[in-house]
């Protein structure tokens, strides 16, 4: 479960990388070598597919009760197929008290009634498979709900559940006679990670909400039950899993150890005030992932994605495993999310550094991935500007690797203002009315904007679980389908383009990088070469790509597509443009073809 406080750790990496990293084109080329050597029939589906994150509450409400559901998602199968995605990743749909919107699970093998029932799920999988789409589920192994029967029995010390969770005796009592937690460990949601349970007479550990007790993976029966849960869903035809909060799976055995404080921290309840050396990224995690990998490999062509946060690239890459000890197919790459925060600091050089940081650390034979947003951060169009929507989609869809698109990014959805009264996110609620806007994740979770009808066509109910963005009258799927050019149409064109063999097998290079300009080229012998050019500045420019280039470029190129911000008569798709005087609007991306002789 990604939490916004964790992602800030990457800032340090990027700053250091910008100063010290010498980016090698050779390593980028090696990324594609394994793909080029594979027969088309042997290429895993997740290498050629776009992954689309569907937040079930917000896709479509067909029941209708104001909250999205499985029937609603199934009703959009034609849209998703036409969009060009190949994999739909469902955020949690398990039975849950919904204290953290499904990440607090009370039954791992049941569908929460708010989303429908198991018949609805089976129908979704069947329909998606009929349309050539894969279904991936969120898997949340680190913690359950405190309403789960395992926890209830653990409280009562009923075997075999006594040690299913992380329990500890108090360190002592305070002046009021209240028990003192065994150490200083903190919850991601602020405050102590220890909650006293009067019935059992011990503290239990929770890295997130107190209603989300951490499971004890040092107990073999817990690991066995997790295997059974994965098997249950695999037998139902699920095509893979995105594993939530994988780095939190283990804590050190000695529960008396205090984690060191971060120098200069002013708020002792803030998760960022400690260096979490005893509660995240422990080496015991890898054998558990390995067991899951072995299980999935007993089924044909299954995907294992890992949500990993680490401020150390070497550590992060370990979650891929290696050729003899494979783990996840990939840990999520959140570098772009972290980098794309402040438009004024975004440059061609900094984007090149960020892209290279992943490619150059990638283990041999492993596959990259690119992510612009998810349910835990503000929408990318709000973070860096609407004018960059098309350009950034060009980047993640045309670089080597698997792109992951958060619902609504294909039409450029923006964050929605959510009042304190309408706030649902527990992370925002924890900070209170004065600070909730800085921490709430609700603005990026609002209902999908399908058309200009009431509630943007999301529901026929009288209300929605979160307010719909007021801009839905003009920013919606139906309007973009009818428009002559739109973010949606650009996205669909990119999805078609990336299926071409040159994007599946070719090398990548970065011929021109300046303060304002980021470029990359996909090139394969005997094929047309593609050049992607992005203007990251907030003003129009005329760029000379023949200067300061690291490789030979022709005098002219042909436009394949361009951002919708460009309305010039001189750069329409199909036209020839000069590379020594290429005009680009603010935030524009342009895809060009070069002759194969270059």
UniProtKB/TrEMBL annotation:
SMART domains documented for this protein: Aamy
Keyword Translocase in annotation: no
GO biological process: carbohydrate metabolic process
MF (Gene Ontology): alpha-1,4-glucosidase activity
EC number(s) given by UniProt: 3.2.1.20
Catalytic EC class: hydrolase
Glycosyl hydrolase family 13 catalytic domain: residues covered: 53-445
Catalytic activity: Hydrolysis of terminal, non-reducing (1->4)-linked alpha-D-glucose residues with release of alpha-D-glucose
The keyword Signal is annotated on this UniProt entry: yes
Signal peptide: 1-17
InterPro entries: GH, GH13_cat_dom, Glyco_hydro_b, O16G_dom_2
UniProt keyword annotations, A-Z: Glycoprotein, Glycosidase, Hydrolase, Signal
PANTHER family given in the database record: ALPHA-AMYLASE FAMILY MEMBER, NEUTRAL AND BASIC AMINO ACID TRANSPORT PROTEIN RBAT
Protein name: alpha-glucosidase
């Amino acid at each position: 479960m990604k939490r916004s406080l964790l992602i800030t750790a990457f800032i340090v990496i990027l700053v250091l990388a910008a100063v010290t990293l010498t980016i090698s084109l050779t390593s980028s080329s090696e990324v594609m070598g394994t793909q080029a050597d594979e027969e088309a029939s042997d290429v895993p589906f997740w290498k050629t597919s776009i992954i689309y994150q569907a937040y079930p509450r917000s896709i479509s409400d067909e029941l209708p009760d104001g909250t999205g559901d499985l029937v609603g998602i199934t009703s959009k199968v034609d849209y998703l197929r036409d969009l060009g995605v190949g994999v739909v990743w469902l955020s949690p749909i398990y039975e849950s008290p919904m204290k953290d919107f499904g990440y607090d699970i009370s039954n791992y093998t049941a569908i929460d009634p708010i989303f429908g029932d198991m018949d609805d799920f089976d129908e979704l999988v069947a329909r998606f498979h009929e349309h050539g789409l894969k279904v991936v589920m969120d898997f949340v192994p680190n913690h359950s709900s405190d309403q789960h029967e395992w926890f209830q029995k653990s409280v009562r010390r009923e075997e075999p559940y006594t040690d299913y969770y992380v329990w500890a005796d108090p360190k002592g009592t305070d002046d009021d006679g209240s028990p003192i937690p065994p150490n200083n460990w903190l919850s991601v949601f602020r405050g102590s990670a220890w909650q006293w349970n009067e019935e059992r007479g011990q503290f239990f550990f929770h890295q997130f909400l107190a209603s989300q007790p951490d499971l004890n993976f040092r107990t073999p029966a817990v690991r066995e039950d997790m295997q059974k849960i994965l098997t249950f869903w695999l037998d139902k035809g699920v095509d893979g899993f995105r594993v939530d909060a994988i780095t939190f799976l283990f804590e050190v055995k000695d529960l008396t150890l205090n984690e060191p404080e971060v120098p200069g921290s002013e708020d002792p309840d803030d998760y960022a005030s400690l260096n979490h050396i005893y509660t995240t990224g422990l080496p015991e995690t890898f054998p558990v992932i390995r067991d899951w990998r072995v299980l999935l490999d007993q089924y044909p062509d299954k995907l294992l994605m890992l949500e990993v946060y680490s401020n150390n690239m070497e550590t992060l890459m370990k979650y891929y495993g290696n050729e003899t000890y494979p783990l996840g197919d990939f840990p999520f790459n959140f570098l772009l999310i972290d980098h794309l925060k402040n438009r004024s600091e975004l440059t061609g050089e900094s984007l090149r550094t960020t892209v290279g940081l992943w490619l150059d650390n990638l283990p041999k034979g492993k596959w990259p991935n690119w992510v612009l947003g998810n349910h835990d951060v503000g929408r990318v169009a709000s973070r860096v500007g609407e004018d960059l929507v098309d350009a950034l989609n060009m980047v993640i869809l045309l670089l080597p690797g698997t792109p992951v698109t958060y619902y609504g990014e294909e039409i450029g959805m923006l964050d929605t203002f959510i009042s304190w009264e309408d706030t649902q996110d527990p992370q925002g609620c924890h900070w209170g009315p004065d600070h909730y806007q800085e921490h709430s994740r609700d603005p990026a979770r609002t209902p999908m904007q399908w058309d200009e009808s009431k509630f943007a066509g999301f529901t026929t109910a009288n209300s929605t679980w979160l307010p719909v963005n007021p801009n839905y009258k003009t920013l919606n799927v139906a309007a973009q389908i009818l428009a002559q050019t739109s973010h949606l149409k650009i996205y669909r064109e990119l999805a078609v383009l990336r299926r071409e063999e040159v994007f599946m097998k070719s090398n990548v290079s970065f011929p021109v990088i300046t303060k304002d300009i980021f470029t990359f080229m996909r090139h394969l012998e005997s094929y047309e070469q593609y050049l992607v050019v992005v203007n990251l500045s907030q003003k129009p420019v005329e760029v000379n790509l023949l200067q300061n280039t690291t490789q030979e470029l022709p005098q002219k190129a042909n436009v394949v597509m361009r951002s919708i911000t460009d309305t010039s008569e001189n750069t329409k798709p199909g036209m020839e443009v000069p590379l020594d005087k290429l005009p680009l609007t603010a935030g524009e991306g342009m895809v060009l073809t070069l002759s194969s002789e270059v």
